[in-house]
Amino acid sequence: MKICVVGTGYVGLVTGACLADAGHSVICVDKDAEKISLLKKNRSPIYEPGLDKILRKNSIVFKTEIDREAVSSDIFFIAVGTPPNESDGRPNLNFIHEAAQELGEKLGALKGKAYKIIVIKSTVPPGTTHRVEKMVRKGLKKNSQVKCDIVFSPEFLREGSAIEDTLYPDRVVFGVESEKAAGILKKLFASMIKQKDPAFLLTDIPSAEMIKYASNAFLATKISFINEIAYLCELAGANIDGVSKGIGMDRRIGKAFLNAGLGYGGSCFPKDTKALDHLAGDHGHVFHLLKAVIDVNNMQKKRFLHKIQKVLDGVENKTIGVLGLAFKQNTDDIRESIAIDMIEALVERGAKIRAHDPLAEKKAREFFSARGKDVVFCDGPYEAAKGSHALIIATEWESFAGLDLAKIRKTMKKAVVFDGRNLLDPQKVKKAGFIYHAVGGHERGS
Ligand code: NAD
Questions:
Q1: What is the CATH number that goes with domain 216-444?
Q2: What are the residue numbers of the active site?
Q3: In the chain, at which end, N or C, are there fewer CB atoms within 10 A of the end residue's CB?
Q4: CA pair distance 146, 143, nearest whole angstrom
């Protein structure tokens, strides 16, 4: 089929690449000319395992606007950003409105009969897809012979395993009101998904919009819950490792998202929990549980920062090595990264930071230089630790778990490790001569 994907970020580019790899003819449109120019040179503007290979293998067409060739596509995916507004944290829907208007105008200029399906992949509050539909239809002239159906399909991919998640999804949800569109989309996704019987769930459009927010809010709840339990472990003399394991072995609970740490970050959980909280408020409902989840997440960073300041007797003029800048491992994304928040807070308190991340250094460098914050970026973890009074593990990169701690110990001014991701083996860290602080209890060295 002929597919046009509008917005080539983590979601759009991966969707386009996987559909192209399944044999469809794909055009990717992004208004960011720099991104498009990189992509035209076969270079990906984002890191995602396996993505480069798929991009090289398939001839996707990249454009900065929905031109005549793009508008001739059968199916349009809209995957533009819906970032939080700085003022109140509500999702900014301007990008999706712009994309809908542009698409409506371009479809309106088409001559002759045509049937198009527009699929919204961006995360949007219930009611948005119907409003977007009106915007698209406004572009179609009264006598237009273009028929179109609009569908909302929430995206569940995780950065760092986006290709895998797209090809082997737990479920594919379509909020859809047209049987014809549902049939075509099921066929399209089945051609891309590697599982035998993909789990399709068809719902009405607002329910599909809600499924995305509810899923992320539930996962965020698990994280805040385990972080509260971890704190209680510290107070009550228990150990979070055993507690998490013991909880997770219950199949009704499951072991995923029960790792205590610095809290959730990234471009989705913080934004989507806030958006859902606003949605509740707009309907006159106080979502007490969700508010607590958000508060606990904010508190978690502060608790850790407080621990660092207390142990080091203040951080002013202290050199601190920070391992990890990305919001999680296997990505170069630093949006709402707790590692970045932590560094900002430490710099504000006069600390000198030596940071390292396997992938996210470029983005972090741009971020801190735009804010006039001095951070030294180091080529590797050993370099970052050199001459520091303490080492913080801020992102759970697997490579950090296997570091030669004795080697690190020799180059540091003081032997203190703050493990914000409970990544290291406490016994090994202590054996290497470190004072070890982590999240959640005696064995972890609270
Ligand atoms: P992103 O910021 O990486 O990419 C969005 C892209 O859209 C940008 O390249 C931007 O230039 C482009 N864009 C904006 N307006 C445009 C327009 N009018 N025309 C063409 N291009 C335009 O965002 P993302 O991380 O891919 O997320 C996209 C959406 O998917 C968001 O709503 C997000 O909440 C949701 N989502 C993201 C993830 C994730 O892990 N990143 C997972 C699930 C859902």
A1: 3.40.50.720
A2: 268
A3: N
A4: 9
In angstroms, what is the span from residue 198 Cα to ligand 1's centroid? 25
**Ligand 1: nearest atom to the Cα of 13:** 26
Six-digit token pair at 103? 């698409």
Among candidate residues 327, 262, 258, the one with its CA nearest the CA of residue 297: 262
CATH 3.40.50.720 domain locations along the chain: 2-203, 216-444
pLDDT tens for the chain, residues 1 to 446:
999 999 999 999 999 999 999 999 999 999 999 999 999 998 999 999 999 999 999 999 999 999 999 999 999 999 999 999 999 999 999 999 999 999 999 999 999 999 999 999 999 999 999 999 999 999 987 788 999 999 999 999 999 999 999 999 999 999 999 999 999 999 999 999 999 999 999 999 999 999 999 999 999 999 999 999 999 999 999 999 999 999 999 999 999 999 999 999 999 999 999 999 999 999 999 999 999 999 999 999 999 999 999 999 999 999 999 999 999 999 999 999 999 999 999 999 999 999 999 999 999 999 999 999 999 999 999 999 999 999 999 999 999 999 999 999 999 999 999 999 999 999 999 999 999 999 997 766 65
pTM: 0.96
Angstrom CA distances, 390 to 93, 311, 413, 415, 424, stand at 42, 10, 8, 6, 15
The answer to whether the CB of 21 falls within 8 A of the CB of 57 is yes
Radius of gyration of the chain from Cα atoms? 24
Closest CA to 304 of 422, 424, 131: 422
Confirm or reject: Cβ of 95 under 6 Å from ligand 1.
yes
In the CATH hierarchy, which top-level class contains the domain 2-203? Answer: alpha beta
Residue 411 CA to ligand 1 centre (angstroms): 42
Cα 278 to averaged position of ligand 1 atoms, centre (Å)? 21
Q: Is 122 in the pocket of ligand 1 (CB under 6 A)?
A: yes
| Ligand 1 closest atom vs CA 157 | 42
Closest residue by Cα to atom 15, ligand 1, is 95
Across the beta sheet with 2-6, what order do the strands follow? 61-63, 25-29, 2-6, 75-78, 114-120, 146-152, 172-176, 200-203
Residue nearest to atom 37 of ligand 1 (CA): 11
Ligand 1 atom nearest residue 267's Cα = 41
Return the residue whose CA atom lies nearest to atom 1 of ligand 1.
9
